[in-house]
Structures are given as C-alpha cells and as structure tokens.
Design brief:
Elements (H helix, E strand, L loop, with lengths): L32 H4 L7 H4 L3 H7 L2 E3 L3 H6 L11 H17 L12 E6 L6 H13 L5 E6 L7 H5 L7 H6 L10 E3 L4 E4 L8 H4 L3 H13 L3 E6 L7 H7 L4 E7 L5 H8 L7 E7 L7 H4 L3 E4 L12
Parallel strand pairs: 1-4, 2-6, 2-7, 3-5, 3-6, 7-8
Antiparallel strand pairs: 4-5, 8-9
Helix pairs in contact: 5-6
C-alpha cells in the first residue's frame, strides 16, 4: 500500500450527493444569471469548424507563445512525444471517462473539474494548466480553464498574457456578459476565464450564490465541454472548500516529501465524503514507466491513511 493510499482511510467511493447551496455573502444576484451565461462559449460542435463565431462571442483573443510555454515546463501541443505528454495522458484519462459516464463511479457535473491542494506551493496551477492543454489536444473536446484562485491568480501569467477583466468582474457586474470576460486562445479548443480585477471581497465571491448558479449553468448548458477550475488551496481559505463542493471531480495535488498526511486528511474533510477525488503526487521520481520518460508526477485514486508523516 503506497503512501497516498495510507492518507485516505476515511473516504470511500460512492455516488455523488448534491453539493450544498452556498449563501451569497455580499453580492446578491442582480439579474438573471442564466440569461447572462447564454453566450458562455460556442457550442462544442462548432469550435473546430467556425473560428470566426468564437471570436464574435468573446471580446479578446490571444496567441499562445508555445516556446515560452515549453520553457516554463508546460505541455506543448505538437506532434512530438514527450515525458510530460505521457504524464498528463495518464492523468486525464480517468477524468474523461467519468465525464463520459464510463468510470467506476458516476457523479453529477463530472465535466466540472477543480484542481486544488492542501497548501500553497504544491503545483496546482501548473497541473491545472497542463491538464487543460492536454485535454484541449483531444479530438472533439473543448476546454474552459477558469482561474478561480482570485486572491493569487497566476494562470494568465503562466500562459504568457495579461487580462484586466475576468471571473471577479463578471460576478459583481450585472452589465457584463460572460463572453465579455472570456479569452480565446490560438488553440481553437481552449478558452480562458481569467480571475479578473482585485477586490477586497474576492474570496467571498467564491462562496456567493452567483458563483453557485454559474457553475450549475456551466455544467448544464454545455455538458460536453470540460471546465477546469484552478482553486485556492483548501487550507488557505474556507471559500476553497465551498467551491470544490460545487464541482463534479476534484484533483488534489500533493507535493512529495513536503505535505503531511494530517494536512491531506484535513483538506479532504472539507469535501463531500462521497465526491470523486484523484491525486497528483508532484515532485517525485517514482513512476511506472520511468524507464521511458522519467516522469516526476504520479496520478491515481487512493484510499487509506494513519501516520502523520510526509507523503513520499
């Protein structure tokens, strides 16, 4: 039994229950959010065939600097095989099977995937970006990557562009359409929703009723689109746990040799106990096919755990 398996004794697989309703704290709904999300993005079937439609639906488009992305250690969608591509093929496959209803456990809103960690600095944003890039390379898949770490946003910085408006602005401004804050990329199947403007109550927005309704609408209106949320660490803000419980799947990034099992168990206690949770063990050299690619991350579903020691 490996060390991650020892960290989850209290969890057991099962059907996902409906997430709790988050109470709006400071931003009561000012309009019909469902109508405002009508232009969330183009239909999946048209993304690959009508790029002009996508441009009309959003206010900005950026060209990703693939060499800069490669230099940052991120996955680059080209024809070459690489270690990092193999890693994320292994990571994304069970997630996509769950989206398609072919996994061992079914769940509501399986197309909403949150990437988080127990503590800062474990690699969650790096993982969220690579996961989005990998899934966007799939045929007949479209991805919306949401920077929901509104206190310390970094998705756009990692991908090499800037955006003034985003999720925070949409949640507080009834005049904005979601299309106004989406950013198209040079990958037709990848769209970004930046974190947006700094706000003194930005963390509370993640627990707002507007955010709850937005996630429901994202899941229902476009069930074929994969929506990946880069979340704050679970032990950093209480809102992160509320956000995670609005998702169908949780990817927990764990830094090997750094994160205590007790911290993982505390983070897991903030989630729905029946929720599907997968782990990415980051910063380790152990991997099943290391002879081929020397991977430094491990992914898997795991259960079990007692000792309060570092996960290795």
């Amino acid at each position: 039994m490996d060390s991650i398996e020892k960290a989850m004794s209290s969890r057991s697989p099962g059907p996902t229950v409906s997430p709790p309703v988050a109470t709006a704290r400071a931003f009561p709904p000012k309009g019909d959010l469902i109508e405002r999300t009508a232009n969330i993005a183009v239909e999946p079937s048209s993304v690959h065939t009508d790029a002009s439609t996508a441009t009309k639906r959003t206010q900005r488009s950026v060209t990703l600097d693939l060499e800069q992305i490669r230099a940052a250690g991120l996955l680059v969608p080209d024809t070459q095989r690489s270690r990092i591509k193999e890693e994320y093929r292994y990571i994304k496959r069970p997630l996509l099977m769950n989206v398609d209803g072919k996994g061992a456990t079914t769940t509501d809103r399986a197309n909403l995937i949150v990437v988080t960690s127990a503590r800062p600095g474990e690699g969650k944003t790096f993982t969220a970006c690579n996961l989005a890039l990998s899934i966007a390379a799939e045929r007949n898949r479209t991805v919306l990557l949401v920077d929901a770490d509104v206190l310390k946003p970094s998705v756009t910085k990692i991908l090499g562009f800037e955006a003034e408006r985003g999720l925070v602005d949409f949640l507080i401004d009834d005049q904005l359409e979601l299309a106004d804050v989406l950013v198209n990329t040079s990958m037709p199947s990848l769209t970004i929703l930046p974190a947006g403007s700094a706000h003194h109550l930005s963390a509370e927005l993640l627990a707002s009723d507007n955010m709850r309704r937005l996630t429901i609408e994202m899941s229902r209106r476009y069930p074929d689109r994969i929506v990946i949320f880069d979340s704050p660490p679970l032990l950093a803000t209480t809102e992160a746990g509320i956000l995670a419980n609005l998702m169908g799947q949780v990817v927990m990034v764990v830094a090997a040799g750094r994160t205590l099992r007790s911290q993982i168990k505390t983070a897991l206690s903030m989630l729905d106990p029946n929720q599907i949770v997968g782990f990415v063990l980051n910063k380790t050299r152990d991997f099943l096919v290391s002879n081929y690619y020397g991977q430094d991350r491990v992914y898997g579903y795991a259960y079990g755990g007692e000792a309060d020691s570092e996960v290795r």
